[in-house]
Amino acid sequence: MRFSKQREAVYNVLCQTTSHPDVAWIYARTREIIPNISIATVYRNLQELLSIGKIKKLSAEGYAERYDANVSDHAHLVCSCCGKIVDIDMSQVDVKHSIAGVDRYEITFYGCCDECRNNKDASQNKQ
Amino acid sequence: MRFSKQREAVYNVLCQTTSHPDVAWIYARTREIIPNISIATVYRNLQELLSIGKIKKLSAEGYAERYDANVSDHAHLVCSCCGKIVDIDMSQVDVKHSIAGVDRYEITFYGCCDECRNNKDASQNKQ
DNA sequence: AATTATATGATAAACTTTATCATTTATTTT
DNA sequence: AAAATAAATGATAAAGTTTATCATATAATT
Q: How close B85 gets to chain A, by Cα (Å)?
C-alpha cells in the first residue's frame, strides 16, 4: 500500500489528538492541511488504516463511530458530564473471565472524568 | 407514557429474541404483527423504550447499533466467525479497577462462540 | 519514456435517522 | 356520553452518513 500525502494527513491528524474524533472532525482537520481533499478519500483512508491495524474504531453507546490512532491495549472512560472519551491505562484495570474462545475484549467505563469532577468540587466549595 | 399496540409490538419483538437485532430487523418483525407500522414509529419507540430503561442499545465495533431487551447486567461475546452476539453472564466475569468517578462499564469480548468452536472441532476430527 | 497499478476528487446513489404535520387513537373532563 | 385535551401514528420530506462510480491524476515498474 502506498502512503499518499492524503493518507499521511489523515493518519497524522489522528495521531496528534487523543480526543477520539469522528469522521466530520477528521475531515475538517485534514482540510486544513490539504484544502481540496475529498470526504470520500477520508473515509477510504480510515478504512485502509483500519484494515492494516494502524488505527482503531471505537463504538460508545449512542455516539457516532470514532477513531483512535492509539492501537495499544487500553480502555476508555466516557464522561457522562461532558461526553469526552478519556484513555484509561490497562494498569488500572484487571479483568478475569472464564469464557472459552475469547482472544480479546473491549471495556468502556461510564462516569465522570477527572476534569468534570474537579469542576463540581470547586463549585460546591464556593457555597 | 401510553403503551400503544405499536410500542407493545416493538417491545415484544425485542423480548422474544436474544439476537441483539438492528432497526431493520426489528422493523421487519413488527410489520409481521402490524403490517402498516411506519419505520418512524419503530425508531420513535426504540428511543422511548431506551429513555425509560426498558431496553438497551449496544455498540459493537463496526456493526450497526443494535438493541437488547435484556437490561440486566451482562456482557457480550461477538463471534469473530459468524458475527453473532452472545450474552455472557456476569458470573463469568470479574472486573476490578482503580478509576475514580466510574458508575458502570460495558465489556465486550471478541472471539469464537461455542457453536462455531464445536463446528470447527467436528470438521477437524473428520480429517 | 511507456506501461501498469493505485489513489484521488467529484458526485451520484444508497442507506440511516430525524423532523414535520395532518390524522388517528386514547385519556380526561364536563 | 359528548366534548375537549393530550399523545401517538403514518406518510413523507429533510438531513445526515457512508459507499459506489468513474474519469483523472499520481506513483511505481518495466
A: 13
Q: Is there contact between A15 and strand C, defined as CB under 7 Å from any strand atom?
A: no
Residue A18 contacts residue A74 (beta carbons within 8 Å)? no
Determine, for residues A111 and B92 on separate chains, whether the beta-carbon distance falls below 8 Å: no
Averages of pLDDT over each 10 residues, chain A, 127 residues: 92 96 96 96 96 88 81 93 91 98 94 91 72
Where does the pLDDT of residue B62 fall: very low under 50, low under 70, confident under 90, or very high at 90 and above?
A: low
pLDDT at B84 over 60: yes
Secondary structure of residue A1 in the 3-state scheme = coil
Contacts with B14 (C-beta within 8 Å, 6 or more apart), sequence order: B21, B26, B49, B55, B67, B68, B69
Q: What percent of chain A has pLDDT over 90?
A: 77
Predicted local confidence at residue B120, as pLDDT? 84
Distance CA B107, CA A5 (A): 37
Rounded, the Å distance between the CA of B105 and C1' of D23 is: 49
Reading the block at residue A110, the C-alpha cell is: 461510564
Could you give the domains of chain B? 5-68 (1.10.10.10), 74-126 (3.30.1490)
pLDDT score, position B126: 57
